[in-house]
Amino acid sequence: MHEAIFLEPVFKEMIWGGNRLSKDFGYSIPSDKTGECWAVSAHKNGDCRIRGGRFDGRHLSELFAGERELFGGIEGDVFPLLIKIIDAKEDLSIQVHPDNAYAKEHENGSLGKTECWYILDCDRDAKIVIGHHAKTKEELRQMIEQKRWDELIRVIPIRKGDFFQIVPGTVHAIKGGTLILETQQNSDITYRLYDYDRLQNGKPRELHIEKSIDVIGCPHRDVGAERAKEQIGGVLREHLISCDYYSVDRLEVKGEAEFSLTEPFRIFSVVEGGGVLDGVSLKKGDHFLLPANYGTYRLSGDMVLITSCVVSSERERK
Question: Which segments within 9-152 are labelled E, that is strand?
Fold first, then answer.
């Protein structure tokens, strides 16, 4: 099928959210506390509708369940990826995610959550939380019980264009003034370790201390991004990461180039500028996927896209 599948985002209001999804992307958001745009999602907590084309109005989960050939016949009960844009006007909670094995046992068979962040924009002198300083589980528990958060939490500076891989067991938090695109496993499992003692509707938000301690890796180890660059015609392709669950690239289009779709499907998010895909206009904030057997495709214009696919073989992970 030679037709791109465009998706309508689902928006989530959050205690820490803002209005940049409207200001920067032109989305119609529910309020000035909108924290997340679920841009490509088939999750039960936010299932995107298809916009236009022969599948107009259907949900992505429905398409994945009933038209598996569009996705290269890949296995699995749920669509494997979830793409978000996150507007953190204020700090998110300090949190951690479980891996597949832990989530399957403790979260009703859910997938775990490996994710990665591309920094779309951030305030000057912005920072982010990735990792901690505890050397052992015993020290971790002690620092948590004694609320020695400043000693425990590892905070690092960031700037626009940075990229981070967040594996299960990694303590992390997006801090205020940051706009990111997140590529992740199709999971909504988050364990809050610390939430700054703030209130929502007059009550503290739920924390998950014991589960957090269970899954946090000690000591912390960073996972480096790959960031290999390749010029293809008028497109600079920068490979950001490959892992067991996804492969992510950044495409900077300054002209045009032709590509061949060899994956079961490929997801695209236009994060800057605008252009054309095979005669179809693209603008900032568009999200679409190319289904299996789409064949060759041509991108042109002046834009930046973040694109991802599932990793189906050991060869592709290298």
Answer: 10-18, 34-40, 42-43, 46-47, 49-51, 81-88, 94-96, 115-122, 127-132
Distance CA 123, CA 316 (A): 35
How many Cβ atoms from other residues are within 10 Å of residue 287's Cβ?
26
Q: CB–CB of 252/287 below 8 Å?
A: no
284 CB neighbour count, 10 Å cutoff? 16
3-state secondary structure of 9: coil
Catalytic residue among 20, 192, 250, 266: 192
pLDDT in tens, 59-85: 999 999 999 999 999 999 999 999 999
Separation CA 179–CA 121 (nearest Å): 5
pLDDT > 70 fraction of the chain, expressed in percent and rounded: 97
* 192 counts as catalytic: yes
Q: Among residues 285, 135, 287, which one has the least CA distance to residue 219?
A: 135
Q: What is the 3 state secondary structure string of 153-176?
A: EEEEECCCCCEEEECCCCCEEECC
Q: Which of 118, 274, 238 lies closest to 181 in space, CA to CA? A: 118
Q: Is the dihedral of CA 280, 254, 267, 283 positive or negative?
A: negative
Number of C-beta neighbours around residue 278 at 10 A: 16
Q: Give 247-281 pLDDT, tens digit per residue.
A: 999 999 999 999 999 999 999 999 999 999 999 99
Cβ contact 191:202 at 8 Å: no
